[in-house]
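Homework help board

Subject: predicted structure for assignment chain

Our instructor gave us this sequence and asked us to write out the predicted structure in token form, then describe one feature. I got the tokens but I'm not sure how to describe them. Can anyone check?
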Amino acid sequence: MPRAEVGTPKYLANKMKSKGLQRLRWYCQVCEKQCRDENGFKCHAQSEAHLRQMLVVGEHAGKHISDFSSQFQHDFVQLLSRRFGTKRVFANRVYQEFIQDKQHLHMNATRWVTLTEFVKHLGRSGIARVDETDKGWFLAWIDSSPKALAKQEASKKKERATMSDEQRERILIAEQIEKAKEQAGSEGSGSGSGSASPPAEERALKREEGGEKVVLSLSAKVAAPATSTTAPAAGGLKLNPLKPAVNPLKRPNVFKTAAAGKSLDSPDTGNDKKRPASAMSAAERLILEEQQRKKRKMERDSAVA
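My token output:
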């Protein structure tokens, strides 16, 4: 059936029907013809013009597919770089904007069957950074132009310069800390050498194994019963030996017993003279010397008088 002439009602009706995006699976890239349904695509595939064109393409099929693939990749990357730049974007969003042009080169003429395979190819070839999430595939264009590379190199040099300055500052700070520690150590050693303090191990308290045990008794000493209780009293009265001298029910006075024990323990001055000097304590020797000095002074004064 021949095509409708331009300007006829049939031509205008066909244009109105083909308005908008049609199904990509019913598009023939070799003949660049869009069919509206499956029956129309089947009729076109059996037409003489399509078969003649397929014979021409079949002679160098690999070359034609490679050309279609490179053209599709060029157009897709051009849209990605101009529309989104280096931002991370959803791959399907870029593809939807790409196919809005009815005259675009369709993917069914390339060596990639699905968009996922094409996105993976972009990631492997280093054209874009690709990552997969739960929502789908995302990609970001990598700008490899000379201007962008020069800008990246300048930024790297600047970072190296700033990092080297920071490292120098850190080294200077570390050196100052080391010097301060050395000065503090030298001052501490100088003050320690003047006092000649023993080491910490020697200053620690140690208990000798053969030393005597120190026992502290906090109980008050009970005065011994007087021997005159059994002896006859001064008035000639005799005490009943069966009657106890001290009432066991009566509580003893602690202060009296302590005073009595102190008076018994404290030696007399006469006894101090008889005790050898080696048995006296330092306090007792001082007291004895003071008493002798007073005694000599009194004798001197009486001799003068």
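Reply (TA_rk): Your tokens look well-formed. For the description, you could write something like this. DSSP finds eleven helices and five strands in the chain. That's the kind of observation they're looking for.
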